[in-house]
Structures are given as structure tokens and as C-alpha cells.
Amino acid sequence: SVRRGSVLQELHEVGLLLAMIPELEAVTGRVRRDAYYAYTVDAQSIMAVDRLHALARGELASEFRVVSRCAAEMARPLPLHLALLLHALGTGHPDDPAKHAAAISGPVAERLGLAPTDLRHMQWLIANQATMYFWATRRDISDPSVIAEVAREVQTVHRLRDLFLFTFCHVSTANPNAMTDWNARMLDELWQSVSDHIEG
């Protein structure tokens, strides 16, 4: 049985995760110079993957109905799981940590046998990891032109759904109070408006 309910955490503690993905060593035990993040880089990445599992199992459905439903509808979960696990590989990069992480993650995913389309999708999620939270909390999502702009950026409901799930899992594990009711509502509304727009 797994001690804290996290298979990934167990693998990490015994060194198997690093044996499979040595690239994670650079962020293991690394503290971000940002008071917003309460956990080390590796701990938060593992928590984000575990949060996705909890959503998919329906464990948070009473509190987070919309995102839980999206998690239950995931057709190809592996690229999203890997994106959450590897998204912080660029931490500390001076220019663009997200794009740097996306570049590093490619060879990792290839080595793990990810199909080329899934690999590109994973890299897209990592490169765009901050965009949905920015749109939801810093733009006027009641403005149809903003919704149209986001739809042009993401292109498909599949990409939008995974970016929504990625954002929720990433933000809600940054610190215990990061996912406020308002944040969650804004993300829900953005998901709904943009998916409606894409589907016409």
C-alpha cells in the first residue's frame, strides 16, 4: 500500500522517479524565490499530478464541479500528467522558464515513449502554462473579443480542456490558499465561454 496516497511521491522518495527522469534532479528540493509558492519545485509538481488524479476520481466534485467533470472526460491523460510533472524544469531560467521547460521536456517524453502528437501537445501545455490564469484573472472575460482571442490561441476544445485542468492543478497546489472561490469561478467561466465559442 502507498503511505500518503501518492504513488509518485513514493517513487520520488526511493529515487525511482529520478532514475527514470534524471532531468528532475535540477529542481529536486529547489525553493522558488517567490512567496506565492509554499512548496519546493519537485513537491509541487508531484502534488499537481496527484490533484489531477483526485479530480478524475471525482474526489473534489462537490466543491469543484466543472473542473472535475472535465477531468472525468479526459480522453488522453498521459500528456497532461507529464506536462504537470515536467512543467517546472525551466525554473530559474533568466529568459522564459516555461519555453525552456517545454524544450527540455521533449527528449524526456520521447524517451518515455510518448507519441509525437502527444509530445507536441505536452510541450504546448508547458510553454503556455501561465496563459489561462492570466486570461481568467487579468482580462475582461465578459468581453466577446477576449473570448475570441483566447479561442484563436487554443484552437481546439481538447487543448482548452487540458490547459484548464493544468491551470487548476498548478494553481491549487502552489500554496494552500491559492485557489480562491473567485479564481475557480473565473477559470470555470473562461472554460465555458471559450469552449462554447469554439464549438459555435
**Strand content range:** under 5%
How far is it from the N-terminal to the C-terminal residue, by CA? 47 Å
Total beta-strand segments: 0
Q: Which residue ranges are poorly predicted, with pLDDT under 50 across at least 5 consecutive positions?
A: none
Helix content: 55-70%
Computed CA radius of gyration, to the nearest angstrom: 16 Å
Principal-axis shape: globular
Report on the architecture of this protein:
This protein has 200 residues and is mainly α. It is 63% helix and 0% strand. It is built from 11 helices and no strands. Helix 3 packs across helix 10 (157-172). It is globular and about 45 Å long. It starts with 6 loop residues before the first helix and ends with a helix. The mean pLDDT is 92.
In short:
The chain has 200 residues and is mainly α. The protein is built from 11 helices and no strands.
Key descriptive features of the protein:
single chain; 200 residues; mainly alpha; 11 helices
Write the layout of secondary structure elements.
Blueprint: H1 7-13, H2 16-20, H3 41-56, H4 65-72, H5 77-86, H6 97-111, H7 116-127, H8 131-138, H9 144-154, H10 157-172, H11 181-198
Helix pairs in contact: 3-4, 3-5, 3-10, 5-7, 6-7, 8-11, 9-11, 10-11
